[in-house]
Amino acid sequence: ATRPGATSREAATHCPYCALQCGMTLRETDGRTEVLPRQFPTNRGGLCQKGWTAAELLDHPERLTTPLVRDPVTGEQRPASWDEALDRVAAGIRTVQSGHGRDAVAVFGGGGLTNEKAYALGKFARVALRTRHIDYNGRWCMSSAAAAGIRAFGVDRGLPFPLEDLARAETLLLVGANPAETMPPLLRHLTDQRQRGGRLIVIDPRVTATARQADLHLQPLPGTDLAVANALLHIALTEGWLDREYLATRTTGFDAVRRTVAGYWPAEVERLSGVPVADLEATARALATAGSAIILTARGAEQHAKGVDTVTAFVNLALALGLPGRPGSGYGCLTGQGNGQGGREHGQKADQLPGYRKIDDPAARAHVAGVWGVPADDLPGPGVPAYRLLDSLGTPDGPRALLVFGSNPVVSAPRAARIESRLRDLDLLVVADFLRSETAALADVVLPVAQWAEEDGTMTNLEGRVLRRRALREPPPGVRTDLAVLAGLATRLDAPVDFPTDPRTVFTELRRASAGGPADYAGVTWDRIDAASGVFWPCPDPDGPDTPRLFADRFPTPDGRARFHPVTHRPAAEEVCADYPLHFTTGRVLAQYQSGTQTRRVAALRRAAPGAFVELHPDLAARLGVTDGEEVRVVSRRGELRAPARVSPTIRPDTVFAPFHWAGAARANSVTNDAVDPVSGMPEFKICAVRVERVES
Ligand code: SF4
């Protein structure tokens, strides 16, 4: 309760972290800001630890409130005025582009940026810099599911139905998803599902907090999910459980898939994956004989060099059972980052323009160029996916300058030591952030930008629901919004068009740019979002309906049918051997988020999860002579990480796990493999070959 006489203000907004975008109220009373949970369809009044503590960063002592520039004499970063910092960035861009061409400057965005920022960043790259090199860290989040969704359904929306549909599924299959740790309030929907008599099946190499709640847990060898999916379809085919009418009327291409999965004998797949035939059969039966069933994938299935094909295998299974478009049924992807969905719709992806349009489509280029007020021929062509872009920095053929907005690739990139050295080789590195991340520490110029509670905007959550992020207060003195940063740079670079700084104005332009595209926001207005619990795209008409559920009658493909693609198992890019005999996999923990730039600085979260660890099975620990809590070294061909051992039967004896939130010696991505999926560009974060050694004291 607010004490009498206190001055108080509130903003109904959403959590700054993950794609669940839990509703919260921010209340400031006499200068003290607190988080209150808010009823919203995704979280239904719940928040996780990260959400509860999100306000702590607003007044954090490490908050950046003045630009920093690297002094050429001392080599150290020092405070600077905004004019000096922006002049230095603009001069650096001009020097690099005049010497090496427009593509010598690159932009790297983030899946936490609002829709308005993601849109403005894509426009800035293509219109002010005229570079083809822009991509973002969402490439490492859900790009494999996005690519699989587009090739099967003709569109990529993480969940093509609202979360509330989960409760209607008689069988729910989670593949490589651990929402009990990554987005705990989502469990309220799973609890509903169970209370209605539904079954939960989890596929995960670890006995996660989510797997512990499952009726059935399949614990395959990392990298064998695709074979497991094909075996499930093999069983459904053999048992005559397919939806023949759906196959005939709503899909194309099943014959090739039928021929492929015919070879995935359950006994063979048991040998490959370690999943018993009986569990494969029980899973296939539970999916096929249920009145309604949903299959959800997340990073465990997707972050592989065969991630697109792995997701496709589960999409094939869903289609063969006639699930997509049926009430309480379907396939979906649990997107990770707060605006992972919107971040990929508005043009910060190397191959896309706003509205999810393809950048090499002449009609799309003409439409977007018309909205931007520039000739279509002036727009650059497609760039390259995130890892390829970062790995080319500073090389003879790669960009020589990089502008980073809302991302920390020094910690989050695969084979991170190599990317760190690429960043050090640049002529110019600019980072816009509100904390001095490990990437910002390397920058020539650091630009302090506003936080989520200090500016308005929109986010698009994992359901494709467009939400309003509402400001509680102004940014502190010395801090600017990302939109103001882009406008300031655009002016200095003599950009041919304006870059508005008012997010509502930017959103109005975004709506026009997206109109007619697959992700059509033309009918989404801020007022309309305010009047409801968000608006689902596509929504082409301000007076027409939005689209909570897709695929009820047709798929957005040329013939209206979903498309099967045959996919086959192949080994991980790096297999175990005598020198590196163990599989290594990475993931998240409840109290930390992504590269940890924010959550590592929150006291309560630091107490809950103070540092990295290496999870290994008691049998493996005994073989290595490692005791619980003892520091160990995980070594791959690319580097090593050091952290205390956490000895636990929750992991397979042939596999070790580490969370990826920490930097320095505990950086898990020093170890990970930079092999990427040929279609999506997704790196193989989830499996590589390592050995574990004791660290002698
Ligand atoms: Fe924030 Fe995600 Fe936690 Fe919800 S589940 S409070 S959106 S981090």
From TrEMBL:
SMART domains: Molybdop_Fe4S4 (SM00926)
Record bears the keyword DNA repair: no
Alphabetically ordered keywords of this record: 4Fe-4S, Iron, Iron-sulfur, Metal-binding
Protein name per Swiss-Prot or TrEMBL: Molybdopterin oxidoreductase family protein
Domain of life: Bacteria
Keyword match Iron: yes
Family annotation (CDD domains): MopB_CT_Fdh-Nap-like
Species of provenance: Micromonospora sicca
Domain 4Fe-4S Mo/W bis-MGD-type: 8-60
A Pfam family this chain is assigned to: Molydop_binding
PANTHER family xref list: NADH-QUINONE OXIDOREDUCTASE SUBUNIT G, RESPIRATORY NITRATE REDUCTASE
